[in-house]
Write a structure and sequence with these properties.
single chain, about 350 residues, alpha+beta, Pdz3 Domain, 2 domains, four-stranded antiparallel sheet, 9 helices, 10 strands, about 50% helix
Length: about 350
């Protein structure tokens, strides 16, 4: 891990940007519906800089702790006194306006992810796995182990057919089940000839002959046409959302929180990615932006999804939930989330030792 101050700075700026984008979604939607926004804060703690445009009710500020951000919409705090005749207050707007305002934060993260995917697909290239002909692992009791193949060997030829990838190996093995075949390896810079007899194995797409090895997969960055970039900008967020939901289900099923990351863990991942390639850094920003959007849509009290659940109740029943009850539920949810955050952050800090 190259945990240099410059890498950490870029990592923190990247995460802060995603949070600012999220809050900007809330801000723009609220202003579009005529809600009064009192504060747009970047960071937490004591303000270092403040600015209130002439004629605007909003104070924009940058605070000491450069993590997180928040937008204060007038009337959203249940403790505030609500004048039913004030059109600028959040509670005085229709349910549609309030739903859009809450949903706009996660939507902004998805929109930012799509924009980054489109740009990366055309400029730096999207990361895609590409297999090599280098052996990563040899299965126990397989023809490859019997022939004493070992990791780092390169399979360069099968029965006179050139091999450069996993796909090449599959094609070269086709039709050779139970047939002794000459395999040419590159081992320590020298060509080595071994005789192997592929055996049949069942796969999801049907049986095929194998020799019992796994090949090393490397990540490459490929650019795409504008049409393909646009297609991926739409499909990738959906695919990654499904993958995230499956990951959440797996965490719940196995009660394994190792894959859950705090801001510290995300900063470490982004910091490490910078020295790999700029594209890798942007790709991780895309993954975090989608994860941030999805996480906030979960129907958990204190999150946007929890607020949307109460608004959904209002749509179905045509009456608002009790404000005191809703506030109490969000407060309990916030305390629980903060507790989980402290535990996960403590673990991530411990892992930095």
């Amino acid at each position: 891990m190259d945990f240099t101050p410059l890498n950490v700075t870029f990592a923190i700026l990247g995460i802060s940007l995603l949070v600012i984008v999220h809050e900007a979604g809330h801000y723009l939607a609220a202003r579009a519906f005529g809600m009064r926004v009192l504060k747009f804060s970047i960071g937490l703690g004591k303000p270092l800089w403040k600015y209130q445009p002439k004629g605007s009710p909003t104070t924009f500020q940058v605070c000491m702790v450069p993590l997180l951000a928040y937008v204060q919409i007038d009337g959203m705090n249940p403790a505030d006194e609500v004048d039913p005749k004030d059109p600028g207050l959040y509670p005085n707007k229709g349910v549609f306006a309030r739903i859009v305002t809450i949903f706009a934060g996660p939507f902004a993260n998805y929109l930012a992810a799509s924009a980054m995917i489109f740009g990366l697909a055309q400029i730096g290239g999207l990361p895609e796995p590409e297999t090599t002909n280098r052996v990563a692992m040899v299965s126990k009791g397989s023809p490859a182990q019997i022939a004493k193949l070992r990791p780092e060997d390169r399979v360069i030829e099968v029965g006179g057919i050139r091999v450069e990838s996993y796909e090449d190996l599959v094609r070269a093995n086709r039709g050779r089940e139970n047939e002794p075949t000459e395999y040419i390896l590159l081992r320590d810079g020298e060509r080595v000839s071994v005789m192997l007899t592929p055996t049949m194995r069942e796969f999801a797409d049907g049986p095929r002959p194998v020799i019992g090895i796994q090949l090393v997969s490397e990540r490459v960055f490929r650019t795409h046409s504008m049409d393909e970039a646009a297609r991926r900008a739409v499909t990738y967020p959906l695919i990654l959302t499904v993958a995230n939901l499956e990951g959440i289900a797996e965490v719940i099923r196995r009660r394994d929180h190792e894959q859950v990351k705090s801001v510290v863990g995300m900063t470490k991942i982004l910091s490490d990615s910078i020295r790999i390639a700029p594209q890798q850094y942007v790709w991780y920003l895309i993954l975090i932006s989608i994860a941030l959007g999805l996480f906030n849509l979960l129907p958990v009290p204190a999150l946007d999804g929890g607020r949307l659940a109460f608004l959904g109740y209002e749509v179905i029943t045509r009456r608002r939930a009790n404000e005191r009850v809703e506030a109490a539920i969000h407060t309990v949810g916030l305390l629980l989330l903060l507790g989980v955050l402290v535990i996960v952050m403590g673990r991530d800090l411990w892992d930095l030792r």
